[in-house]
Design a protein that fits this description.
The chain has 289 residues and is of the alpha/beta class. The protein has ten helices and nine strands. The protein has a nine-stranded mixed β-sheet. The termini are far apart. Bound molecules: iron/sulfur cluster. The site of iron/sulfur cluster (SF4) has 15 residues, from helix 7 and helix 10. The site of iron/sulfur cluster has 15 residues, from helix 7 and helix 10.
Length: 289
């Protein structure tokens, strides 16, 4: 029997450990446009998710709206996911912790320039020296985790490509990726864009969006989200607590909402900079072995 793609559980699910963050990055919706209550995922919710997704989902990603390392049981949760047989990944602003769980598959750390001025113009509230120190410490004990430095291409960092590469490898990273930034929250972020047009996103209108089919999302309070930019539960998706998550995805109600997102019928889809963005990565370089 052929199962509708709208009823299939995605192979990768983002588990939002928290939607709280300690920084104020200009293009981020977390502090500027989020209407959901703030909180941390409870042990009960996490246990239910792990139990339900085991053997059905390959990859759990512990980052969405907030800074995942702020969660008081960050280490415990990630290690339990590893014991459950999932690949795991985290993206962090590297301001809080200096250690990483040895079971993590991929760690992405944000370093948005090779100088204090370039980095903090975007990562507002961050201490550049401390971030570098934290990355060094994390890399010293990274075990088999792949550590990737991610640099957003801005008007300050666009001239620092070689310096960022050198710095990332000096700090101990395995690779460095330069990412084109989005601007879409109407907070004057256009002025942060690089002057080089090849470093900007080329947004093309597309009639459909596969994002929600490829990656699922569960918010810290257990509700399902639609896609990896759905900050405010635009589809009013249900809560997974007490439910069989695979069956919930297969339900008519959730499939109908996911179909709407696929055809970009939500208000948020009209201004979304993800579905038509093309290549988000401008350049990725790996350390020479
Ligand atoms: S177009 Fe809609 S469904 Fe697709 S990523 Fe954007 S907000 Fe999500």
């Amino acid at each position: 029997m052929v199962i509708s793609p709208f009823k299939k559980i995605p192979k990768r699910i983002i588990v939002e450990l928290t939607n709280k963050c300690n920084l104020r990055c200009p293009a981020c919706k977390t502090w500027s446009h989020m209407r959901r209550p703030r909180g941390f995922m409870t042990n009960e919710t996490f246990t239910h998710i792990i139990k339900e997704l085991k053997g059905k989902v390959e990859h759990l990603s512990f980052d969405f709206a907030g800074e995942p390392m702020l969660h008081p049981d960050f280490f415990g949760f990630v290690s339990r996911a590893w014991y459950g047989g999932f690949k795991t990944s985290v993206c962090t602003n590297a301001t809080t912790l200096r250690k990483i769980p040895p079971w993590l598959t991929t760690l992405t750390v944000c370093l948005d320039g090779s100088t204090w001025e370039a980095h903090t113009m975007y990562r507002r509230g961050s201490d550049f020296e401390r971030v570098k120190y934290n990355i060094t410490k994390m890399c010293e004990n990274k075990g088999c985790t792949h550590v990737r430095v991610q640099c957003l291409l801005t008007s300050r960092s666009e001239h620092q490509i070689e310096d960022v590469k050198r710095l990332a490898f000096e700090l101990g990273a395995d690779s460095v990726v330069f990412k084109r930034m989005h601007t879409g929250h109407g907070l004057g972020t256009e002025r942060l864009l690089p002057s080089d047009p090849t470093m900007r996103r080329k947004n093309k209108w597309r009639p459909i969006c596969r994002s929600g089919l490829q990656t699922g999302l569960i918010y810290w309070d257990g509700r399902l989200g639609m896609c990896c930019v759905d900050f405010n539960n635009m589809g009013s998706m249900p809560n997974v607590m007490g439910r069989d998550i695979e069956r919930l995805y297969a339900s008519k109600d959730v499939a109908r909402r996911r179909r709407r997102a696929f055809f970009k019928r939500y208000k948020e889809c009209k201004t979304c900079e993800l579905s038509g963005a093309g290549g988000l990565r401008w350049l990725e370089v790996r350390r020479d072995k």
